[in-house]
Amino acid sequence: MKQTCDIPVWDIPTRLFHWLLVLLVAGAWLSYKFGDVTMTWHKWNGYAVLTLLLFRLLWGFVGSSTARFGDFIKGPFTVLRYLHGGARAPSLGHNPAGGWSVLAMLGVLIVQAGAGLFTTDDILVSGPLNFLVSSDTVDFLSSIHRLGYYVLLGLVALHLAALAFHRLAHGENLVRAMISGNKCPAHVPPGTAAVLRPLWLAALCLAIAAFTVWFGISVWRW
Amino acid sequence: MKRLTMIGCAFAGALASTFTLPAAADETNPYIVHRQGTYKTISGHMDSLKAMLFLKHDAQGQTAYHAEAIVEAFKHMGNAYPAGSDKGKTKARAEIWSQPDKFREAGRNSFAAATALAEATQMGDQKEMVEAFKKLGSTCKACHDDFRKK
After folding, report:
1. Chain B partners of A134 at a C-beta cutoff of 8 Å?
2. Which residues of B fall within a CB distance of 8 Å from A140?
3. What is the pTM of this model?
């Protein structure tokens, strides 16, 4: 039985956010591992990650229906019921377990990128806010930044495992949905579709996010 | 109640300690005091060079002084890690004493890079100084990665 998979689920800003974040998380590692000793790329990569994260937080309040935290953050009993049912119940956007994984991912990345602002290599490079805190605090935040990488790897692995599970167990291609923005009718609750918000609003959120990052880094030197 | 207060104080103290300045070097072991002092000296000269080479501080005539001071400081680090100098508050890893040849090699790399930087400052070519400075930084990092606790 052939069906047209044309139920709008993810808006363009959410999809762009997702794939840019994938690139930047990879970029953060690459620029650390293979970058110049001055870590210029790693720093700019971090500012970009922070900007994207702030954008996503804003979009989680004013964005399209499936992008909103209120839409996908569910109570623990709902999550348990969902998992107990074999993660089978269709969701339009994030399922009850996935919603918490989104929050975890955002939280870990915010801590990771935020801690990076305070770190130093004790040689040539310091984060832009390094001078604000004592060296003990710097040591602590540097450890967070170093260990956060492994927490992030764990979350990414969990994320990929969940994708593979939905693909193999339920035949649902979530990667394609995050590219095209649409899902098949069989995989969403009947009669539902995302309520999309205009692109200019996303652009405004991005501008506010970028300004906030720039301001947050610069204001301490004024 | 008294106990609770004590726990509260201990907790507040631990919390406060993350916001206060670090303690001075561990004076129970003079070797640690000496080498940390010398590393801080090197670090200070690195900062000054950074101001000139990266932050465009206009004092190019002084780059040679700072580079030579780093070379000079390294010359006094030949016996900075004798047996037993791991005792005390230090970030020195056990590998320093278990892989002495590798550690000496790392030290020689930094000394060579510092010497090359001092030569570059004599020539005064901006680009070569920056490259030599970055090279020195990368030899510091290589040694930290292998021999310094995080």
Report:
1. 18-22
2. 18
3. 0.86
